[in-house]
Amino acid sequence: MVHFFHLASLMASLLLASAPAVASAASNATADDHSALLAFRARLSDSHGVLRGNWTAGTPYCSWAGVTCGHRHRLRVTALELPGVPLVGSLAPELGRLTFLSILNLSNAELSGPIPSEIGQLPRLLSLDLSSNYLSGNLPSALGNLTTLEILLLGSNNITGEIPPELQYLQYIRYLDLSRNDLNGQIPHDLFNGTSQLIFLNLAYNSLTGRIPGAICFLPNIQVLALSVNKLSGPIPPSLFNMSSLERMYLSVNNLSGFVPNNESFNLPMLESVNLRKNQLTGIVPQGFGACKYLQNFILAYNGFTGGIPQWLVSMPQLMDVSLGGNDLSGEIPAGLGNLTGLIHLDFTTSKLHGKIPPELGQLTQLQWLNLEMNNLTGGVPTSFRNLSMISVLDISFNSLTGPVPRSIFGDALTELYIDENKLSGDVSFLADLSRCKSLKYLVMNTNYFTGSIPSSIGNLSSLQIFKAFQNQISGKIPDMLTNQSNMLFMDLRNNRFTGEIPVSITEMKSLQMADLSFNELVGTIPVNIGKSKIFALGLAYNMLHGPIPNSISNLSRLQVLELSHNQLTSAIPIGLLALQNIHSLALSGNALTGSLSEQVGNLKAITLMDLSSNQLSGNLPASLGLLSTVTYLDLSRNSFSGTIPKSFANLSYLTSLNLSFNKLDGQIPRGGVFSNITIQSLIGNTGLCGLPRLGFPDCANNLHQGTKSRLLKLLLPSILAAEYGSTGKASRKSDVFSYGIMLLEVFTGRKPTDAMFAGELSLREWVNRAFPSRLSDVVDPSTFLNGETTGAGWRVGEESTGDGSCLAQVLDLGLRCTTDLPEDRVTMKDVAAKLQRIKEVIAGI
After folding, report:
1. What is the pLDDT of residues 748-770, one digit of tens each?
2. DSSP state at residue 23
3. Are 335 and 357 in contact (CB under 8 A)?
C-alpha cells in the first residue's frame, strides 16, 4: 500500500511538471494553424468576398467558412473545403503546416500557379481535391509522402511534366484522377506495384506515350480504367481483358494496335462500358464481349475490325449504346437488333454494309441516335421509322437509298436529319411534316432527285440553323423565312430549278452567314437591302438576275465570298465593293457590267480569286492590281480593257493563273513573275501586245514589221503556237479542233459568238461562211489592215497565192474547216499547225 501511494505521488508530480510544456505545444500548434490559414487567405483575391466577410479577426478560425476543426483536438484544423468558391489566386506553401488536415478540397476555385511541395508534409491527409482549376507546373514528387491518402483528384488543370514514380508509395490510394492536363512521358511501370487498393484510375486527356503498363492488369480492385485521348501505342495487354472487377474500360483515341483476345482468357464479368474508339485495332469483333451480361455501352468505332456485325449482339437486351462505325465491317444489318429495345444510340457509320435497312429497327422506341451514313445500303426509307418517336439524330446519308421519303415518319424530338447523297426521289412534301419538329437544327437533303416545291411551313422552323437542299430538281419559289426568330446560319439551295425572285426575308435574317442560290432560274433584281445582313458568303451565280449590283452590298463588312457570275447584271462595279478588306473570292464574270475598274481595287487585301471576265469593262488596268499580294487567280479576259499591262503584275508572287485574253491591250508585256511561264491562252486576242517572242509577240523595238504584214504576223504567230501545242497534247480531240476554229474566227473578225448580232440561225461561223470568199472584207476586222489595203483582187484562196489577202482567206477557210457540223469532216490539229506554218512562211517571204 505504501508502494502504491509512492507511485501515485510520483506520477502526479510528473504531470504537474509537464503541464506547462503540453500547454505551450498546443498553443504553438494553434498559432501554426491560424497563421497558415491567414497565409492562405493572403494569396487570394476572393472576388466574391466569401472569405472577406467571414475570415475576420473577431471570429474564431474554427468557425470560418470552409474550415472544420477536430472533435478531439478542438483547435486543430482537420478540413479545408471551399469547392466552387471563386478564390482566384495561388496555393500558399504554409498549407503544409496544417498537420492535422485530413480533407483539402479547393476544386473549381479558379486557382493558378504550382502545387506547393509542402502539401506533401500533411501526414494525416486522406483526400486531396484540387481539380478544375488552372494549376500549372510539375506534379511534386513529395505527394508520394502522403502515405495515408485515399483520394487524389487533380484533373482539369494545366499540370505538365511526367507522372512522378513516387506516387507508387500511396499504398492506400483508391481514387486517382490526373485527367485533362498536359502530362507527358510514359506511365511509370512501378506506379501500380504498391497501389493495390486502386478502384478508380483516370489519366485520360493528356499526352502520355509508350505502352500500357502490364501491372495495371493486376490491380485486384480496379473498377474504372480511363486512359483515353493520349498517345499510347502498342498492343493492349491481353490480361486487361481478364479483370474480374473491371466495370468501365476507356482506351479511346490512342494509337493502340493489334488484336483483342478472342479466347478463353477473355473474362470481364462485371463490364458495363467499353470504349476503344479511334485506335488501330484489328481482327474480328471479339465474341468474349457477348458474355458480359451487364454491358450497356459497346463502342469500338473507327478501328480496323473486320467481318460482319456480330450476331450475338441481338441477345444482349441490356445494351444502350452500340457504336461500331468506321471499321471494315461488311454484310447486312441484322434484323434481330430490333429486339434491343433499350438502345439509345446505334452507330454503323462509314462501313461496307449493304442490303436494306431492316424495318425491325422501327421497334427501337427508345432510340435517340441512328447513324448509318456512308455505307452501301439500298432500298427505301422504312415506314416503320415513324415509331422512332424519340429519335433526335437520324443520319442515313451517303448510301444508295431510293424512292420517296415516307410521310409522317419524323417525331417531334428530331434535331438533326441527314438524308443527303442518296438516290431518293419524289415530291418534297414530306418537309411539311417537319413543321412540328420545333427543335430541328440541321436539315441536310442535298444530292438526290427530289422534285416539287418546298412547303411554306419550312419557314416556320425558327430553330433551323443549316438547310442544305442543293443538287436536286426542286422547283417553285423559295419560301419566305421567319426573320426576327430565325437562327439560320447556312442555306444552300444551289443546282435546283427554283424560279421567281429572291425572297427579301433572306436578306433580313440576322444570323445568316452563308446563302448559296446559284444555278437556279431566279429572276428579278438583287434585293437592295442586301447590305443589312451579316452574311460572309453569298452565291447567286448562274441565274437570270438583272439590274445593278446594289450599292448596299458595300455594307457587308464580313463578306468573304461573292459569286454573281453568269447573270444579266448591268451597271458599274460599286466602288464600295472594292473596299471590303475581308473578301477573298470575287466572281462577277459573264454579266454586262460596264465602266472602268477603279484603283480602289487595290484595297482587296485578302483577295485570292478574282474573276471579272466576259463583261463590258473598259479603261486601263489599274496599277493597284499589283498590290494584291495574296491573289492566286485573276481573270480579266473578254472585256475591253485597253492600254498597257501594269508592270506591277509581275510582283504578284502568289499568282498562278492570269488571263488577260481578248481585250484591247497593247505595248510591252511585263517580264518576270507570272509572265515567266505564261501561255498564249492568257494573252491571245490582244493584237497590240509585244515583247514576248516565244509566244509570237514580236520584240517591241523591232520596227521592221510594217503595214498589213506586221499585223497579220502579230495575229498569226500566237495562233500557230496554240495549234502546235494542241497537236501534241490532249487537245487533239475533234471537240477541241472546233473550239480552236472558233477562236481563229474570233481573232480575225474581232467578233464573239455571244455578240448580240448572232441570233437565231445566224452564228459567227455562218456569218463568215456567207461572206466567203468574195466578200471577206465585210467580216474581217479592219484593224488587220493599214491604209485600206483590202482590194477584192487579194481575196484568192489558192494555195499558190502570195498576197496578204490570199493568206487571210486561207486562215479563215481553215477556221471554217475546223468548225464543220460533222466532227469527222474536221481537220486534225496536226494539219492545222502545218497549214498555219506554211501561211506564216508565205507572209514572211512577201
Report:
1. 888 888 887 787 778 888 888 88
2. H
3. no
